[in-house]
Amino acid sequence: MNLAQLLVRAARSYPERPAVLWGADVIRNYQQLAERSARVASHLSHTLGLQAGDRVALYMSNHVDYLEFLYAAWWAGLVVVPVNAKLHAKEVLFILEDAQASALFVTADLAADLKPLLPRVSSLRGVFTPGEPECADLQDAAPILAVHRAPDDLAWLFYTSGTTGRPKGVMQTHRNLYAMTSCYFSDVDSVEVDDALVYAAPMSHGAGMYNFAFVARAARHVVPASGGFDPAELVVLSQQLGNLCLFAAPTMVKRLVEYIQSVGAPVDGFKTIVYGGGPMYVEDIQSALKTMGPRFVQIYGQGESPMTITALSRQHLADQSHPQWVHRIASVGHAQTLVEVRVVNEAGDALPDGETGEIVVRGEPVMSAYWCDPEATAKALRDGWLWTGDMGAMDANGFLTLKDRSKDVIISGGSNIYPREVEEVLLCHPAVHEVSVIGQPDAEWGEVVVAFVVGQGLDAQTLDALCLEHIARFKRPKIYRFVESLPKNNYGKVLKTVLREQLNKE
Ligand code: AMP
C-alpha cells in the first residue's frame, strides 16, 4: 500500500516515458526518476539511519527534483512534511520542530534565510539543497527496494494554511492518499499517457497532490520555467506539449482567462483546468467557460480531506441548457465517490434539503487526526465525521452550495447574512475587481455589513443601487471601503481576520 508503488509500477511498465519536464524539456524518464528516488531512499535509510515513520520535510519552490525527493521518502518508508515555500523561515522552524523532522530538502532560493535557524532543530540529521555537493552525493548510494507500508501508516503531514492561529499538522495515511487519487479518476477526470500536468501552483499543496494520478498513468509532470503561474507561459506550454492539465485557484483561472481574451490566444492545447480552494464567482466561471469551453472541473476540499469533499463535473459546468445551470455552477457539485457529505445543525443532525448548516464529511480520504493535538482532533472529528467549519446547503439533487466559513457569517438584526452572496452581487459590476465582505460589531444591529472593494471609479451609491436590484435590503453593505488591494495569506486566500482587525482598530 506504499504510495511509492505507483512510481515502481510506472517505471517498470513504461521506463522510457517522459516523467519530469522543465518547461518543454524532458529532464527524466520514469526509469530515471524511480532509480534516483531509490538511491535517495537508500541514503536516507542506510547512511543517515532514518527509520520508517521518521519525518522528512520538503521546503522547496517548485523544482524538477520535487517528485524525486517525495517518492524517495516513501520509498524508504518515511513521512513527508510538505512545507509551503511562501512561509517565513520562522514559521518553517515551527513546523520542523513540531514535526520533529529528521531530514530536510530545501531549494537554494529558500535556504539562505532558513539555514542559520536550523541548529535549533535537534531532530535534523541531514539537509539537502539541489545543486549543492551533498545533494549530488545522494546518488552515490546503491538503490534499494521500496519498503512495505501498511495502509494506515502515516504518509503525509500537511500543515494547514490557517487564516488564524498556529498551523496544525493534518495526518494523512497511504490509504487516505490512494483514496484521494481514486476520487480523481472517478470524479474529476481521466488521465491519458499523453497528458501533461503542469505545476502552476505550489507542489506542496493541492497541485502537488494531483501528481499521484499522473504517476499512476505514467503521464508527464511539467515544472514551468518560471516556477509558478504565468498565463503567457502556460499558453506557450499548452501549444508545445498539448493535453495540458492543471490545478488552479479561482484567481489564477480568472487571470488566465483574461490573458487569453486579451491576446486571443488558442485554447486547444489545454485539456483540463481543475479549480478550487476558494470561491469561484458565477461571473468568472461563465466568462471562463465562454472563453475556453468545457475544460473546467471544480473541486471542494480542505487539508483535512484533501481535494475530496465534492466535485462539479465538466458535464455539469458545460450543460448551459439545464434550467438549473446558474444555480449549479454556483455550487461546488456533488459528494465525491469515496466520501459522504451532510449538512447538519449544531447537534450534528442532518438538515432538510435547502437548509444551511455546517458541512460534515466522512470517508476514506478524511485525515486520521491532527499531529500531537488530541484537543483539536476531538473538535474536528466527531463520531467519525469531519466538521469542516464551512457552511452550506444541499439541494434535492445533491448539489452542495457553500455559503461561508461558519466564523465569517454575519448576523445583523438577528438575520444571517452570507458574505459570499453579497460579494457575488458586487462582482457583477464591471469595475469591481475584487471584493471581500465582513461584519463589523454594531451596538444597534449586532453587526453591520462592510464591503472592502478593489476597483476603479466606483462609489457607494452605484454599488448600493446594484445590491438593491439583486438582494434583500438587509443584506446590503452599510459601509464601503475602497482599497488598493486585499490582505491575503500564502495561498492567496483573503484574510478576513485582518480586515476585521483593521476595522476594530479604528
Ligand atoms: P485549505 O485547507 O487551505 O485547502 O482550505 C480549505 C478551505 O478552502 C475550505 O474549508 C473552504 O473554506 C475553502 N474552499 C476549498 N475549496 C473551495 C471551493 N471549491 N469553493 C469555495 N471554497 C473552497
Describe the secondary-structure layout.
Blueprint lengths: L3 H10 L4 E5 L2 E5 H18 L7 E5 L6 H10 L3 E5 L5 H11 L1 E6 L1 H7 L11 E3 L4 H5 L16 E6 L9 E5 H15 L7 E3 L7 H4 L1 H6 L3 E4 L7 H11 L2 E5 L1 H14 L6 E6 L6 H11 L3 E7 L2 E8 L1 H5 L6 H5 L4 E2 L3 E6 L12 E7 L5 E2 L3 H7 E2 L2 E10 L5 E6 L4 E3 L2 E3 L1 H9 L4 E11 L3 E10 L4 H11 L8 E4 L13 H10 L1
Parallel strand pairs: 1-10, 3-4, 3-5, 5-6, 9-10, 9-11, 11-12, 12-13, 25-26
Antiparallel strand pairs: 1-2, 7-8, 8-18, 13-14, 14-15, 16-17, 17-20, 19-20, 20-21, 22-23, 24-25
Helix pairs in contact: 1-2, 2-3, 10-11, 11-12
Q: Largest sheet, if any? A: 9 strands, mixed
Radius of gyration: 23 Å
Our count of helices gives 18
Give the proportion of residues in helices.
25-40%
Strand numbers in spatial order across the main sheet:
2-1-10-9-11-12-13-14-15
Overall shape: globular
Write structural notes for this entry.
The protein is of the alpha/beta class and 506 residues long. It is 33% helix and 27% strand. The protein is built from 18 helices and 26 strands. The strands form 6 sheets. A 9-stranded mixed β-sheet has the order 2-1-10-9-11-12-13-14-15, sandwiched between helices. Strands 16, 17, 19, 20 and 21 form a 5-stranded antiparallel β-sheet that branches. β1 and β2 form a beta hairpin. The chain binds adenosine monophosphate.
